[in-house]
Amino acid sequence: MPEADLTRPDGIDWIVGLDGDPIRRNLLITQSYHDLSEALFQRLAGGNLNWCSYATWASRTAGRFIRDDEVPAGFRRLLGRMEPIRVSLTRANAAVARIQERTTIAHDGFLDLARQVVRDVAVFIGDGNLEVFAELGPVFSGLARAVPDGPDAVTALAATLKPGVTQKGGQSLLRGALLHYAAALREDDSDRRAELMLLANGEVGLHEQIRLQPFIAGSIDAPIRDTLYDGIDGFVESVPRLLRQEVASVVSRLFHPVADLAEKQWHEFATKELMTLSLPDGTLVLGEDLPAPRGGPVYPQALDRIDDRDLADLLQQFGADRPDAVGSRAIDWTELSSRMRYILDLFRSRQLDQSLLGQPFTSEQRAAILAGRPVEGEL
Asked: Does residue 116 lie within any of the structural domains?
């Protein structure tokens, strides 16, 4: 579908249906978010970014993990340098060799299990990316078509969403966001409009993060131990049948330290790798306080003081109501409240930063992505 309009329902449906090519699908999701962001920026509450403006760069960052072989290679190298793991494997192999000579758990074979762990995590991230886009893509596509017809058309779109809490599959948070986008369309005061846009973006962000919770938790708290023991089961099955019980007993007894170390290392490694966000002006480390945009204050003047009561309540709920972004860092990305504190500060800080409207890919890359050809250059 090379000529697809990625802001229209048929273009979004086409992307969602690319089940056999998750890497290309992620690239198309990223491009679609950008196209929606640009369309809405031109029509909705001039000068303020919308939720799709941030989603573009979050999806692009997720794509690095989904497709990049450097992440599994990095984890493999990390485990390979750990002397306690090497010592524990040597001890286990010595015990196994006493049962049957020349039978060993290969160090490289053990490290190759790390690659499978990261591939499993890439599936979690890709599935989360798809889950959110499949729901929010059509909503923002509808919003882009409704905005030119005015606030009443946006309000009518909001009425089509499913009532209920996000945790139970409802869309009341999204409905509230659309109503606040409609209110921003009606608003003439620029500061008041900025607050309404931030409130709407924050409500969409909260809905998104609730939807993503199981995928984020699954990514960082990956079943390292299960994956490693699956590999060890394969090793046990490779020895003669009469020796399997004895070998399994030895391995079960001696392999716990290896699994413990690998699990600990994965949690630290995944937290560091997943807790980044690449923006046009640099990469944010989400475990550190949000820096000010290049050449400006942490918050734009229009959002330095918050007067809207609902917005103030939302910021206060997640501890994002400070006069600056000190304390915004999210130490544990699996914790929804920590994520939301950082995300709300990010939205507030960058809401007028038009560098986020930049294209995520070159025109040549976009053409290749749409046509399903190999994409050259850094993505």
From this structure: yes
